[in-house]
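User: quick one, fold this
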Amino acid sequence: MAEPPAGSPRPEAPLWGPPTGAGSPPAEPAWGTAPSSPPPGPRPLAGAKLASWPSRVGAAIIDALVLMPLLLGAYAALGIELDEEEASAVASSGDALLLGLWSAVLFAVYQCVLLLRWGGQTLGKRVVAIRVVRADGERLDLQTVVTRQVVMQAIPGSLFFVYSIVDGLWPLADRENRAIHDAVAKTRVLADPAR
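Assistant:
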C-alpha cells in the first residue's frame, strides 16, 4: 500500500471493530451463511417422530393400573375403606387430602425413578413404545425429571383435579404434542424408534 503524499492527513484506524491487516484473526462469516460444520454438543430432535396423543393416554392408563394395587395397599394400611357408603365421608374429610398427597408422592416416585432408570420410559411408555427426551437432545437428568413430574404434574394434579384434565388434553392443541409439564420442563415425548 502506498503512503499518502507528504502533507496530506493520514487515515486513522477506526476506534471500534475487529483489527484489520496482517496478523489479525480471520473475519467472521457473513450473516446468513451456514457454518462449515455443526456446532459441538447435543443433537437437536430434527426428524424425530412425536408420540401421538392416544399413545400418551394409553401409557398413562397402563401406569395408573400398575400403581392402583400400591395405592389400595396404602389406603388399607392407613385404615381407609373405599366403599360407596364411606366415599362421601372420605371426600369431605381431611382423608381426601391425605389420599391425594399420598397418590401424588407415589406417582412422582414411580415416574422419576423409571424415567431416569429406563432412559425416558415407564412401564406404560415401554408397552406403547414412546419415550420422554429433553428438547435439546441430551439425556434426562434429575432436575428435568423432577421439574416435569413433581413440580408441574404431581403436586398441581393432586391439589387441582381440573389441572390434570387440562394438562392431559393440552397436547391436542399444541403443535409439538406437548403437555404443560413438557413445555415447562423442556421435554418432548417421542415415538420410540427402537421398537
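User: anything notable?
Assistant: The radius of gyration is 28 Å.
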